[in-house]
Amino acid sequence: MLLDTHVLLWWLEKPELLAAPARAAITSERSLVFVSAATAWEIGIKHARGKLRCPDDLVAMLCVNCFQSLPITVEHGLLAGSLPAHHADPFDRMLVAQAKSEGLILVTRDPVLLKYDISTMAA
After folding, report:
1. Phi, psi of 7 (to 5 degrees)
2. Of 68, 93, 99, 107, which residue is the least packed, with the fewest Cβ within 10 Å?
3. Coil, strand or helix: which one is 90?
4. Which residue range forms the structural domain that includes residue 8?
5. Nearest to residue 91, comparing CAs of 46, 29, 31, 30?
6. How many domains does the chain have?
């Protein structure tokens, strides 16, 4: 599964905000949980602008939670650019492209992302 940015931040700071099935899936030993480089990029930009808080050492927090890093590839970029214009946010479009090309379930609470042809899980 691939965590949307808000899902990652909720997981790290207030996991009770997540739906019980999402929390269970994230903690399951059978789950492979990815965090996109686009998520770290988004967090870094918004943190620098004072729009959100983030853990002091996000990389360490990903390791502690056994989350895998998902790099952005050229293929992801091309797919993100070719997606229908349901969502204008480039970070969300990248997550959709990565979920689609890597066959991942996107864990999100963003209703606009449900318009894309990808598997999702309600956060």
Report:
1. -65, -45
2. 68
3. helix
4. 2-122
5. 46
6. 1
